[in-house]
Amino acid sequence: MKKRKIGNLTVSEIGMGCMGFSHGYGKVPETSYSIAAIRAAHDYGCTFFDTAETYGREQFYRGHNEEIVGRAVEGFRKDIVLATKLHISTEEYDPEGDIYNVLLRHLTASMRRLRTDYVDLYYLHRFNEAIPIEKIAESMGRLIREGKIRGWGLSQVDVSILSKAHEITPVTAVQNLYSMVERDCEKEIFPYCIEHHIGVVPFSPLASGLLSGKVTAETKFGTDDVRKFVPQLSKENLEGNRPIVELLEEFAKVKKATPAQISLAWMLYKYPNVVPIPGSKNKERILENLKASEVTLTKTEFARLEEALGTMEIHGHRGINESQQHSFSSHWMKK
C-alpha cells in the first residue's frame, strides 16, 4: 500500500479501526478470527491500527480490544504504527495535582495490554470540559520527550480546541468524524491541519455502512450496535440519502469497484493528509476497504463526484464538536 505522513509518522494511506472486534456492531467474532483478520490486513500492507482503552463493553471488559490488537500485532509490532486512546474522567482530575500521572497510569495499562513499551499515537478520546486542554498537551509533550509515545492526537474537536493544544505540544493527528455525509472538517480542520502538518484520521469514513450501500431501511441493529444512534441511519434519513448511495453505485460500476471503495478513494484524492480508518469485524470487508488504495480517480471523475455531491441534501448530521460531557459516544463511555 502507498504511504502517507501524519505529523512525524509514516502510515499506510488507509488504516484499520479495530473497535468492532470488541463491541459496537453487534455480536463480536471469536478472538482467533479477530486476530487472523488483523494479521490479514497487515499482510495486505496495512501498517496503521487503531484501538482504545474503552473498546470492550457489554459482555466484555475495558481494555478487551487493546488485548486483541496486542496479541495480533506482537510479531510485527516494530513495523507498524499503533494508535490507542485514553478517557479521563472528571473524578480522576485534581486541579492541584499533576495530570501527567493520570495519563501515565492509563498509558502504562494500555501498553501492558498492547504488549509494547511505547505507543506511536496516543489520542485523548474526547476532551473533558473540566480539564484544561493545555494541561493535557503539556503532559503529552512530557510523554513524548520520555519516549513513551511518539506523537499525540485529539478526537472530535474543532479548531478552537485543536489550536490551543497544538500551541503547547504539536499535535500529530486529529481523529474526527468525516465522510461524504459528514463534511464539517472541510471548513476549518483540514485547512488548519494542512498548514500545520497535522494528519486527519477520519473514523466512520463510510458513515457506519451507509456509503457501502449495504445498510438499508430494513437493516436491524442489535443491542450493542452504535449504528442505531447514527443520524444518517434512521429509516427516513436512509431514504433521504439514497441519491448519494446511487451516485457511488454508478461510479463503482464504471470503475469496477465497490461504493465503499469509491467513497474512500474520493477522500484520498481530495486531501494529502487524510488517512481514513474504516472499521469492520468481517475480514473480507476489511480487505475490501483496504483495496480502495487500488482505486484511482481521475481529475475529471473527482470533479464529477464533487459537483454531484454539491447538489445533494444530506439527511441527518452529527458533527465534530463533542466533549465527554456532550458526546454521541457518552452512552458507551459511561458504561
From TrEMBL:
GO cellular component terms given for this protein: cytoplasm
KW Methyltransferase (keyword) present: no
UniProt keyword annotations, A-Z: Oxidoreductase
GO molecular-function terms, A-Z: oxidoreductase activity
Pfam family, one: Aldo_ket_red
Keyword Oxidoreductase belongs to the record: yes
Residues annotated as domain NADP-dependent oxidoreductase: 13-308
Entry superkingdom: Bacteria
Name of the molecule in the record: Aldo/keto reductase
Provenance organism: Dialister hominis
Taxonomic classification: Bacteria, Bacillati, Bacillota, Negativicutes, Veillonellales
